Amino acid sequence: MNHYGEYDASAPYLHLLSESAWVDLGPRLADALAGADPAAGAVLELGAGSGLGTERILAAVPDSPVLAAEPSAALRAVLIARLRGMTGGERVTVLPVGAAEVDLPERLAAVVGMHMVGHLAPDTRRALWRDIAARLTPGAPVVLNVQPPETATAVPAWPPFGVRQGALTYQGTGSAEPTGPESVRWRMQYATLRDGVVVEEAEAEYGWWVLSAAGLAAELTEAGLHSEVNGDLVVARGSGKPLS
Ligand SMILES: C[S@@+](CC[C@H](N)C(=O)[O-])C[C@H]1O[C@@H](n2cnc3c(N)ncnc32)[C@H](O)[C@@H]1O
Fold it and tell me: Which InterPro entries does UniProt cross-reference here (predicted)?
């Protein structure tokens, strides 16, 4: 059984509460994708969520088909609805699967995975990087990011952060507890408020494999890619030499 329903409860909140992170991340992703060649194949996005990365991909790699894998049915609904009004949205095929279940096309022009690498177990990641490396044209970018914690340590809840939509404020906070030497369990708590009074609450929990940017870059290098770390972003490029 998979755990892909874990994000469903966060569907009314994720887009609103993620927008601010993309103010800085959006241009950095666009820079990393700048050299991607739309003629080289499809762009694959892993864990597309509500499509905040998808819209940047569409703008950065014009004309390329995009495969957006999103395993949560609730988030897929948000994504598909947003694509209908998005410039270039018709180029996106939404795949109802997790990263390891994507039926990879023969060639990939780029791969993007934002705020999702921790959902992949170490063995799953390593196999995926190898499969991706074999399909990338030389220079084609793989753009991933990492999130704290880097090690399996507890993360205390931060003060709830809220975004207003109409008359209501949607807010969220989260905390994590270690569950093993390389993993934590996140507990996200959300609330909808009207004039400071809670009108709805939701909670989402999921496991998360911890990883540093340097550790992720080392995995990608091991898979045959040329990797660079830029803060929380790891950009790896196809070498054109598939591993045997
Ligand atoms: C924190 S959200 C990030 C969404 C989006 N990439 C963004 O940055 O706004 C993590 C996403 O990863 C998805 N996810 C969970 N497990 C996954 C898996 N095994 N493979 C791919 N995506 C997964 C979740 O459904 C969710 O959409």
Answer: Methyltransf_25, SAM-dependent_MTases_sf
